[in-house]
Amino acid sequence: MPISANLKKRLVTGVLGATALVSVLVYGGVPGVALLALVISVGMVYEFSTMILGPVDHKRKTALLLFLTFLLSATAFFQELSIGIVISFLLLFLYYLLEAGKYEGNHLLEHTRELMVSFFGLFYLALLPQFLLDIRRHPLGMHWVILFFLMVWAADVGAYFAGRKWGRHKLYFRVSPGKTLEGSAGGLGCTLLVAVVYQAIFLTNLSPTYLIVAAILVNLASQVGDLCESMIKRSFNVKDSGSILPGHGGFLDRFDGVVIALPVFAITLHLMEYFSAGIR
């Protein structure tokens, strides 16, 4: 079957992006991972703000969200994330409170709704990516961050090609009409394969059972993240969150599964450490 132009774009962008990302993960240490988390967060928060914020005061609200994203990233790097969360919440609430005097009636209602949605956006797209630092600081952290991204990519690739080849039954039609159960199964199979192969080559001191459990949880979480982003885009009648990544859309399109899967994988690692003395 001939390769479509869009698929060629996806492949080229994917290979170049994966090469750059793995290079950062291998050679960048914790600072490189912190920079990566910041770039991902900033890109997603910006795209999110263009979708959910109304035309009134859009630029200033977007600038505030980006500033708070930098603040959360900086405090996560210095391991003071709880302070960043408190300060970000207070600054966000204070800004919307001080600006409330400009609005009345339905405009005030919309202004207040944007406060709530902005807080959700910060938690979802600026805070959750900081779990990448938690994973990197974990024992065997470099292997864990590389394996994490490999598993998420495997889920995407497996679901894409399995869905195209065998997709018949819809996974969640009202939210994402293109996704199928067959594609979901294909993504899970690829994620498991990547985890088992990586364990056999690089993590031979660990039981494959741990990696299989982690792979299943990461795959399920990444699929939930994908559906969450699809729901948001469908609600705002947007096809792609952006166009910065040829063939892939925007940052939010590319890292939607990553955002939800990161905290799941971080918690899984802590549980693995608790139940196994083999992780040091």
The unreliable regions are none
Order of strands side by side in the largest beta sheet? 1-2
Distance between the termini: 48 Å
Sheet with the most strands, sense and barrel status: 2 strands, antiparallel
Helix count, DSSP H or I runs of 4 or more residues: 10
Mean pLDDT: 89
Integer count of domains? 1
Which class of secondary structure composition applies to the elements?
mainly alpha
Percent of sequence in beta strands: under 5%
Subunit arrangement of the protein: single chain
Specify the overall morphology: globular
Order of helices and strands: HHHHHHHEEHHH
Radius of gyration: 20 Å
Can you offer a commentary on this structure?
The structure is a single chain. By secondary structure, the protein is mostly helical. The protein has ten helices and two strands, in the order αααααααββααα. It has helices at 5-27, 29-52, 58-77, 81-99, 106-127, 131-137, 141-166, 181-202, 208-235, 251-275, and strands at residues 170-172, 176-180. Strands 1-2 form a two-stranded antiparallel ribbon. A hairpin with a 3-residue loop joins strand 1 (170-172) and strand 2. The longest helix has 28 residues, at 208-235. The termini are far apart. The model has no long low-confidence stretch (mean pLDDT 89).
